[in-house]
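Researcher: Structure for this, please.
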Amino acid sequence: MSPLDPQADVAELTAVNPVTEAGRMAPKEYDAVLLASFGGPEGQEDVIPFLRNVTRGRGIPDERLEEVSHHYRANGGISPINAQNRALKAAMETELAARGIELPVYWGNRNWDPYIPQTLQAMYDAGHRKVLMLTTSAYSCYSSCRQYREDIGMALTETGLDGKLEVDKVRQYFDHPGFVEPFIEGTAAGLAEVRDRLASAGTPEAPVHILFATHSIPTRDADAAGRSEGEPREFEQDSAYVAQHLATGAEVIRRVEAETGVGAPWSLVYQSRSGAPHVPWLEPDINDAIEELAGQGVKGIVIVPLGFVSDHMEVVWDLDTEALETCANLGLTAIRVPTPGTHRKFVTGVVDLICERTAANNIADRPHLTRLGPWYDVCRPGCCANFRGEKPTIAGADTTVGTGHDPYPAAGQAAL
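Model: Predicted structure, token format:
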């Protein structure tokens, strides 16, 4: 395996973008922060309209949407993600204020109120002109990075703010200490608890396995993750998305073993598959993996939601309900580790990520815990390609077609 070299091929970008060494953008005088997320329904009457937004353009009838709404219905029609984003926004504001950093934090969603276009308009109306965006997705793939860049590009175009409001994006932070260290703490605690439970049951030496869980994506999107036009790279399992999870998981295990002297075998598994059955997605599914481990004699399972920032619906349903039920049905002792949420280290890390990019209160160092980082501020041409059709995009070096703009537009301007 040859990990992505963050020093490679920067010269082409530096000629047209304010990018310094290792794919960095030069610090700017940002005047606001945008927390961008997926969004979710907040009542039973919101469920179908929300699912229409998520599946927009696919022609899926409401009857089919109702069939897949059960996990929201079972939770009163409420996704936890909005409350969690409100809590994260408040925690970010508190941390910024504690550091004396005067940057207001706005919140906008891809699929539910507050929507990104309206949020951008509100920011512009309030006098903001340079915005730094942080998303609640840490890894590299179409839905975790490029789609957010498209959301902003389309919103700037739709609102008429392209060229008036500049929006840049914080780097993908899968291996930033602020994201990883809460998982190190949680994995160590979860492993200790499972072993204590097994000891209490009279089986202290029973085999335990750690499952790092993340959202499955189509294999075509996984293959395109982190790859750029004319820049062949090699990643473990031929995907930056997979490689980033494996590298981060390996670091979590290394730290847990170093700090506690205790470890366990581990593997990467996937969850929350959707879409047409004939389209291949990343595997193995977590429930299939649990059944296989049980057949191998494993008695304890530690589930680490490594792919997620907070305990949203894919965590509380797919893991806390379905995966833990699978464990219970097989007689396995199991625990699910917390996500970073508003953990102090995560909030501090998020503000550190913001300070990497600001001219004032700048943090020049870019900590990263794997050989894959630090990831780029500006995505390479064609990175995490959209196979569904080209859309306006920000924070990347995507070739512009038929706009009269520079073929590598400055990050923050919409490109086609």
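Researcher: Any notable elements?
Model: Strands lie at 19-20, 24-25, 32-37, 105-109, 130-135, 166-169, 208-215, 266-271, 300-304, 333-336. The domain at 11-173+344-357 is CATH 3.40.50.1400 (Rossmann fold).
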